Amino acid sequence: MSDKKLITEKKALGSRIAELRKKVIDPSTNKPISQEELGLRTGNAKKTIGEIERGNTNPTFETLFKIARELKVPIIELFNYSK
């Protein structure tokens, strides 16, 4: 896979994670969970979640699994984005 294609895929994955995160409502605030909250729930820093959502890092399978679990979606749903 070319570097350009890899960058495009990472950004698409990150955008999809951000989109799904914003659909999960925090019952204490009645607002979408924040990057910080998702980080706390998955054992990652807010900065790491932000880097993933911007497509600036390669998350591990374990991290993606934890994110999917907290977003209450099958892991394959993270990759369900238009190409």
UniProtKB/TrEMBL annotation:
GO MF entry, a single one: DNA-binding transcription factor activity
Keyword entries, A-Z: DNA-binding
Gene Ontology cellular component list: cytosol
Domain HTH cro/C1-type positions: 33-78
PANTHER family: HTH-TYPE TRANSCRIPTIONAL REGULATOR, METHYLPHOSPHONATE SYNTHASE
Listed name of the protein: Transcriptional regulator
Organism field: Zunongwangia profunda
Taxonomic path: Bacteria, Pseudomonadati, Bacteroidota, Flavobacteriia, Flavobacteriales
